[in-house]
């Protein structure tokens, strides 16, 4: 009989933590402050949305009437990877709404593929750019459930190129010219994410899409810019934000 009571006591003692209410993680106290800071690491995938000129298929001739490139079949853009690092500044408006900005240094190439009637003329053109993104976003959060809360985020951002090949093709033949983008442009952003609370910090996995408002193509009279009426930049970004 004593052994039975002993076993019952041991089982009750071992099972007690399962029935006890767990204290939510502190999360470094970020939610208890109106103003807080953090940093982010991001994977970036970018591609162009292309509007072509009505006569984009026509062969390109230089000023002397010499054909530089033959007739085109198509112009396309595939998604190319990049990465970014940023610094977060957050300000709480209410328990469920905050405004935030994450100025980020972005390293991401963009690519265009030109397919010609003569396949030997096919060419890929990369737009190599290092830029600074400065977003201004509103974050709408759900109630906290234990160590988790979901949110939606949206707003606008401004992108400024700080390293691009604007003048490096001045001495190149027309057939070797580069496609260039404007130095700065604005975009809208929208996304979803979740806050995961740990004892001394808060981790927020987040996914966003952005699209430029205006044409990002720098117009030039050369075989690779002339067939294009408008380039819009589409970006998918997955971030891990530490706060």
Quick overview of this protein structure:
Keywords: Signal. With 243 residues, this protein is mainly β.
| CATH architectural type | Beta Barrel
Poorly predicted regions are 1-20
Shape: elongated
- Under CATH, the topology can be stated as Porin
Helix vs. strand class: mainly beta
In whole angstroms, the N-to-C terminal distance is 55 Å
CATH hierarchy class name: Mainly Beta
The figure for the number of domains is 1
Number of strands: 12
Write the H/E string, N to C: HEEEEEEEEEEEE
Number of helices: 1
Strand fraction equals: over 45%
The main sheet comes to: 10 strands, antiparallel
Helix content: under 10%
**Taking Cα atoms only, what radius of gyration do you get, to the nearest Å?**
26 Å
InterPro entries: Beta-barrel_OMP_2
Keywords: Signal
Protein name: Outer membrane protein with beta-barrel domain
Organism: Mucilaginibacter oryzae
Explain what this protein looks like in three dimensions.
- Pfam families: OMP_b-brl_2.
- Keywords: Signal.
- This is Outer membrane protein with beta-barrel domain.
- It comes from Mucilaginibacter oryzae.
- The protein is mainly beta and about 240 residues long.
- The chain has a single domain, classed as Porin (Beta Barrel).
- It has one helix and twelve strands, in the order αββββββββββββ.
């Amino acid at each position: 009989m004593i052994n039975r009571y002993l076993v019952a006591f041991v089982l009750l003692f071992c099972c007690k933590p399962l029935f006890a209410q767990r204290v939510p993680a502190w999360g470094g106290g970020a939610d208890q402050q109106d103003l807080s800071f953090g940093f982010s690491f991001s994977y970036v995938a970018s591609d162009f949305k292309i509007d072509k000129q009505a006569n984009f298929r026509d062969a390109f001739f230089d000023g002397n009437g010499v054909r530089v490139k033959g007739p085109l079949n198509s112009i396309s853009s595939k998604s190319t990877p990049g990465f970014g690092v940023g610094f977060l500044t957050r300000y709480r408006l209410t328990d469920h709404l905050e405004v935030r900005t994450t100025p980020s240094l972005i390293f991401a190439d963009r690519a265009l593929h030109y397919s010609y009637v003569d396949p030997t003329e096919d060419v890929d053109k990369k737009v190599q750019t290092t830029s600074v993104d400065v977003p201004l976003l509103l974050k709408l959060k759900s109630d906290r459930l234990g160590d988790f809360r979901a949110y939606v985020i949206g707003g606008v951002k401004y992108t400024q190129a700080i390293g691009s090949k604007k003048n490096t093709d001045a001495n190149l033949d027309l057939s070797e010219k580069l496609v260039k983008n404007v130095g700065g442009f604005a975009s809208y952003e929208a996304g979803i994410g979740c806050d995961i609370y740990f004892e001394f910090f808060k981790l927020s996995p987040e996914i966003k899409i952005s699209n430029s408002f205006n044409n990002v193509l720098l117009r030039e009279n050369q075989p690779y810019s002339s067939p294009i009426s408008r380039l819009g930049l589409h970006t998918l970004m997955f971030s891990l934000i530490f706060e």
